[in-house]
Specification:
- The chain is an alpha+beta fold.
- The chain is built from five helices and nine strands; from the N terminus they run E-E-E-E-H-H-E-H-E-E-H-E-E-H.
- A hairpin with a 4-residue loop joins strand 8 and strand 9.
């Protein structure tokens, strides 16, 4: 592992995450909701469940989990226009990532023919909005499915595990965990890791933004990212008691 003694602008060490909080039950009408904060990045995640599945999935005897993602107008230092009519490619890519991540740990057959939608709305952005969204979305999904069990709609919780995500990168030659916006915008290497509570990898998104990287650097980044996911999984379990 490379040096972790460097102190960043917010006084964190290179291998240290920003303060992370997961606040549940923040919305009255959502079956499950979570306000997730990675430092100054804050995302509101809300899960709803509807009877039926998309047309292409009918007669499958299995459900569907999907997500929608958007940045609210005042979430950045310049007003972000609402995506009315035409969706941004970035938003579509992120919401597909969130949906894939959640489906990885959901037994869709045990869910039955219901559709779960998790809406992730960024209310404040300071880097890592997609990783925060995935981490908070799992909590919202868990709580919505528990509500569906309590209502007698399904026999048991159809979750087979947990999923969380974190960013890593190389900034000024240093490997860092959980990049804020300033670090992310100047990173030589930018990476996101999605992983499960069993240590398996769901997805890796990595780019040499300003310089290529070798296998040794990749392994260092992945080791650092997996250490961050372990912390996030523990926090999810702390608030949901999923593994108790």
């Amino acid at each position: 592992m490379e040096s972790t003694e460097l102190l960043r602008s917010d006084k964190r060490k290179a291998n240290e995450m920003r303060p992370v909080t997961l606040t549940r039950d923040v919305m009255k009408h959502a079956l499950g909701s979570c306000l997730v904060a990675f430092g100054d990045t804050k995302v509101l995640c809300a899960a709803t469940i509807e009877e039926g599945v998309p047309g292409w999935r009918k007669a499958s005897r299995a459900g569907w989990v999907t997500a929608e993602y958007a940045m609210l107008p005042a979430s950045t230092n310049r007003r972000t226009k609402r995506e009315l009519g035409q969706r941004k490619g970035r938003s579509q890519e992120i919401e597909r990532l969130i949906g894939r991540s959640l489906r990885t740990v959901t037994n869709l057959r045990a869910l039955g023919e219901y559709t779960v939608t998790v809406d992730c709305d960024v209310i404040q952005a300071d880097g890592g909005t997609r990783t925060a969204s995935i981490t908070g979305a799992w909590v919202a999904l868990h709580d919505a499915l528990m509500a569906w069990v309590d209502a007698g709609k399904i026999a048991r919780l159809p979750l087979v595990g947990q999923v969380a995500a974190v960013s890593m990168g190389v900034v000024d030659g240093e490997v860092m965990l959980d990049l804020d916006y300033r670090e992310d915008s100047s990173a030589e290497v930018d990476m996101n890791l999605v992983g499960t509570d069993t240590g398996e990898i769901v997805e890796i998104q990595g780019t040499g933004e300003r310089t290529p990287f070798d296998r040794t650097r990749l392994n260092t980044l992945l080791d650092l990212g997996q250490s961050g996911i372990e912390r996030l999984i523990a926090l999810q379990n702390e608030v949901t008691a999923f593994r108790d």
